[in-house]
Hints:
The structure holds two protein chains of two kinds.
Chain A: H1 3-16, H2 24-53, H3 59-66, H4 71-84, H5 92-101, H6 106-118, H7 121-156, H8 165-176, H9 190-225, H10 230-235, H11 242-250, H12 257-269, H13 274-286, H14 289-295, H15 301-325
Helix pairs in contact in A: 1-2, 2-7, 2-9, 4-6, 4-7, 5-6, 6-7, 7-12, 7-15, 9-12, 11-13, 11-15, 12-13, 13-15
Chain B: E1 2-7, H1 12-28, E2 32-37, H2 40-46, E3 53-56, E4 59-63, H3 69-76
Parallel strand pairs in B: 1-2
Antiparallel strand pairs in B: 1-3, 3-4
Protein name (chain B): Thioredoxin-like fold domain-containing protein
Pfam family, one (chain B): Thioredoxin_3
Keywords (chain B): Disulfide bond, Redox-active center
Amino acid sequence: MFEVFTRFADWLAYEVMSLSPASKVGDAVHFFIEDVSKIYVLLLVMIYLIALLRASLNVERVRNYLAGKNRAAGYVLGSGFGAITPFCSCSSIPVFLGFTSAGIPVGITMSFLLTSPLINEVAVLLLMSLLGWKFTLLYIVVGMTVGILGGAFLDAIKAERWLQSFAQKALAAGQNAQLPEQQDTETLSMAERHRFAKDETLDIFSRVWKWVIIGVGLGAALHGFVPDGWIEQYLGDGQWWTVPAAVVLGIPLYSNATGVIPVMESLIQNGLPIGTTLAFCMSTVAASFPEFILLKQVMQWRLLATVFVMLLLSFTLVGWLFNGFSSFL
Amino acid sequence: MKQVKVLGSGCTKCQKTAELIERIAAEQGVEVSVSKETDAQTFLQYGVMSTPAVVIDEELKHSGSIPHTDQVKAWLS
């Protein structure tokens, strides 16, 4: 099904641009054209289709659904909704406050917010097309587990103590208030769904297209210019220190999942162990300073630092686990 | 004069929303004062969970996206 993109890249790189398939430049350019064209077509088609399906899902509905759920179910559902609900990271503060003021425990809210950048339809789509369904499934399971356990941990240490005081008051008021009966009868016509899906496709595409170019460009550079076997020779054994090193390296690199997945593809093909790759990529996507600084509005430094360290430790553990078990995969 | 507040964390979408409202108001000859609210407590006050959100004369009209031109026209008329 994807061969058409290989043939398109053959034609453009080797015939139109008359590069040699044997040269490093030819190899890198071919990789770049094939991946970018494939990703763009997939993104446009799939974001539209997915948006049609989920047009009626929004953060308000998720909040109404999560309010009053018991804890254990709450973490799993919070993380699951985090994966499928569309919302832009610039909305994390209002979403946090909206959940909190409905009396939803901080841990469940954080399960939602932690999973959201890691798993979304664009990330899943790219993983499927570049790295196959097994890896995709693995990535989803790991991402949700980090969100679920992270949320449970924050409630276990009573993280709500370290919210800013107005957020604490909102939480207390929400937990004591009787929830109003929700009227959830809104239905969307096909025309409204189409309008939402069209807006959503254009919106997401306009945000991610340049990340695809950057990510695939880096991947192509790795692919064409890092000597074959270099990564495998020096980092291929999954030495224990490579995992924390990868996590630390990922912190200042700020990317979303769209930019980092093409790099993952290239790293894995070059022989970097799967655990090290996952640790690096999750750290790049989820541990970003600009977004953490935003959360300062609702959290005290102590809680921010706790969440940050918790994420770094869990990505390191993920890396070690997968390097340890990769022979069984 | 209509008091318009655009609620959001200062991302480009909020910027565009504010510009859109100002432009349409100018086209329709409606007097507006558009302010941008980035404070978290303001989101809580209006119960806004997704941004950008639009509040006109203290009434929440819209949240979650850049509004469509025809929506803005309807609010201002």
